[in-house]
Amino acid sequence: MGICRMQSLVANVKQMIKLNNKQQTDVPKGHLAVYVGEIQKKRFVVPLSYLNQPLFQDLLRRSEEEYDFVYPTGGLTIPCHEEAFVKLTASLHNA
């Protein structure tokens, strides 16, 4: 994926975050809520800094391919097993 495409992807996510943060007052500034899971979606709140991480960007690409930024949960939904997401975010947190 080219740099321009990734910038567009991140810009779309940031725009969606602004819209969702107006509705979700329990999300701290500098964070975003995401929904993760194959069948049952679980809500996680992650730092915006994850948007700059290549592994998280890969999840965003998969999300775009799966949902085209139209999410059934009303928020950013990531098509990933919950356990894999927890491991990935733990590695990003420790990096």
From TrEMBL:
It comes from the Eukaryota. GO terms for biological process: response to auxin. InterPro entries: SAUR_fam (IPR003676). Belongs to the ARG7 family. This is Small auxin up regulated protein. The lineage of its organism: Eukaryota, Viridiplantae, Streptophyta, Embryophyta, Tracheophyta.
